């Protein structure tokens, strides 16, 4: 099972989750052309289609993002760019004085099965913390509270509850059902 991503954090988690289901996930570290779009689904679907000619064997990609309620879903589909530019400090600044801290992570997997592209979703609800906490995980993990801990404090446990876990679970279950 080939996972195409430039993000080591994503790969490491998918690899660990895959093991639990008996799937060996192989990393193809590649920066692919990422289509713009209004939704993660659209971006993932179009990006996967564009890779089909190049890869020629079954593979999946995953597009993910952080959606903050009080910011109308920002950074959402722009999560990668926003992380590289303003980062977690920028997110905390935007949330200064904001009482409604609700947010969610969404992961969308686009899987090319050799003939068509199929989509699997997962999400997890939480809150934006008041300060960065924890040194595990990657990306927005230090500012995403799940209960009273951030994803960066949870470590391994993140893989039990994350958006990525939920999307991968649906993906693996579907493959197993197909035999
Ligand atoms: P690809 O090569 O797979 O596209 P990417 O890092 O560009 O890697 P995305 O386009 O999906 O990935 O951008 C998602 C952004 O959201 C990126 O900045 C990630 O660091 C962040 N992110 C995704 N999942 C996360 C998670 O589980 N915890 C923290 N941050 C996450
Ligand atoms: Na990306």
**Unreliable segments of 5+ consecutive residues:** none
Mean pLDDT: 95
Bound molecules: inosine 5'-triphosphate, sodium ion
Helicity range: 25-40%
The total of helices stands at 7
In terms of quaternary structure, the protein is single chain
Question: What distance lies between the first and last C-alpha atoms, to the nearest angstrom?
Answer: 15 Å
Give the strand tally. Answer: 7
| Strand order, largest beta sheet | 2-1-3-4-5-6-7
Query: Judging by the overall fold, what is the CATH architecture?
Result: Alpha-Beta Complex
Q: Tell me, briefly, the overall form.
A: globular
Query: What is the alpha-carbon Rg in Å?
Result: 16 Å
**Beta-strand content:** 25-35%
What does this structure look like?
- The protein has helices spanning 8-20, 40-55, 79-85, 87-94, 151-154, 158-161, 163-178, and strands at 2-5, 26-29, 59-68, 102-112, 117-128, 144-146, 149-150.
- The protein is α/β, with parallel strands linked by helices.
- The protein has a single domain (2-178), classed as Maf protein.
- It has a 7-stranded mixed beta sheet.
- Helix 1 crosses helix 7 (163-178).
- The radius of gyration is 16 Å and the shape is globular.
- The model has no long low-confidence stretch (mean pLDDT 95).
- Residues 5-7, 10, 31, 34, 63-65, 79-80, 83, 105, 137-141, 151, 162, 164 line the site of inosine 5'-triphosphate.
């Amino acid at each position: 099972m080939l996972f195409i991503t430039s993000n080591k954090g994503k790969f490491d988690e998918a690899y660990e989750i895959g093991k639990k289901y008996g799937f060996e996930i192989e990393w193809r570290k590649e920066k692919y052309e990422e289509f713009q779009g209004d939704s993660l689904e659209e971006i993932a679907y179009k990006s996967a289609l564009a890779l089909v000619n190049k890869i020629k064997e079954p593979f999946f990609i995953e597009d993910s993002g952080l959606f903050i309620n009080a910011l109308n879903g920002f950074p959402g589909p722009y999560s990668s760019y926003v992380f590289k530019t303003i980062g977690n400090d920028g997110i905390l600044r935007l949330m200064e004085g904001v009482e409604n801290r609700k947010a969610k992570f969404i992961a969308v997997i686009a899987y090319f099965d050799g003939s068509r592209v199929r989509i699997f979703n997962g999400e997890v609800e939480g809150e934006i913390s008041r300060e960065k906490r924890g040194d595990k995980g990657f990306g927005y993990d230090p500012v995403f509270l799940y209960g009273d801990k951030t994803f960066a404090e949870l470590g391994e446990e993140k893989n039990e509850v994350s958006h990525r876990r939920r999307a991968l679970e649906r993906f693996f279950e579907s493959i197993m059902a197909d035999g």
